[in-house]
Amino acid sequence: MKSFIKFFIEVFKSIYLLSLFNSGYSQESDFYSMENINFNSFEDRPIIKNIVENKTVRIIYLVPSDSIEKTDYTRGLQNTARHIQIWYYQQLGKTFALHDPIVEVYKTPHEGTWYSTNSNGNLFGQFWNNILVDGFALTGAQFNDPNSIFAFYIDAHPICGQCGGCGTSGVLAIGANDLRGIADQSWVTICPGETYEFKPCRFVGGLGHELGHAFGLPHPSGCESSDVDCDYSSIMWTGFYDYPNCYFSQTEKQSLLKNPFIQYDISDTDELFNCDKLLDNVTASIDNLRTDQNQIVFNYPNPFANSTTFYLNIQSKVRVSLAVYDLLGRKRVSLLDDELLAGKYSIPWDSGDLGVNIYIYKYCIGNKTVSKLAVKTR
Ligand SMILES: [Zn+2]
Q: Following DSSP, what letter does each residue of 31-92 receive, concatenated?
């Protein structure tokens, strides 16, 4: 990581000098010295590495041709993904990055019953196989994709004996009962006699479990062959039923931390919100978590596509400025320069025609100046 950072500093310096030479920048321009940016702090925030490698978890909500998108499912999925992302962070000290937007909705060419009934492999795998036929075609997904983990949710049910939630090799697929559960709706009976009642948290755990498989984790040793010496509280076995009161074992942690997708730092928002109410607005949840922190500034989402919002939590009346710079140190937009009273502020930023790039936002609160990164991905 150190040499990586040094490389970046060298590149920045040469770009800096080159641009001074070519464009005739004067000292009075908006240029501010790259020396002001604390590069050491990047070591604690491996977000650059993550962005460079562009590795993300994509949550795909598949809507069969005889269904319509249910906004509760979309919103619930978004919060489910955020929740499990934070939980992974709490377990591992690092986590996976999510796509922007977090949930991508696709209408499929087949009706809901096609996925369970179209002949395609053995009974157990048929629902999974059919979901992937459409899911791969619609999104360009593949097994072991170098850039993305694909999590397919479909608003269709398996029939009894089919896998309604499976994951392996960078891909997972989950049926409609989990979508219903995330939205706090009752379980639809698949096999005779089922009378399940679950809280939404169980379905966050379900995503965590299948993501674990997609990241390459098996069930804990001993669990499939016998009940002896099996780790029931691992999220990779029965622990997901009691999510978030479950964990990864040491072995599972060691395996996940070697995974190139688990390199993301979300320390700005590392507290879990209530998974019993996944339909609450996630921005409000993030906001509520941060009331005890001093003068916090962060942007969300980050990375972002076109727009992002800066959140400020100001504890007492103070002068605040916030501006966005490009990597050449040129100020691209000034978002704020004002005296603020104590309170929470959100400042939306539409990046307009600025190109895909890493940007630096610099804020001054009183006499304290901090620089952070904001990444525009398309
Ligand atoms: Zn499993």
A: ---GGGS-GGGGGG-THHHHHHHT-EEEEEEEE-TTS---HHHHHHHHHHHHHHHHHHHHHH
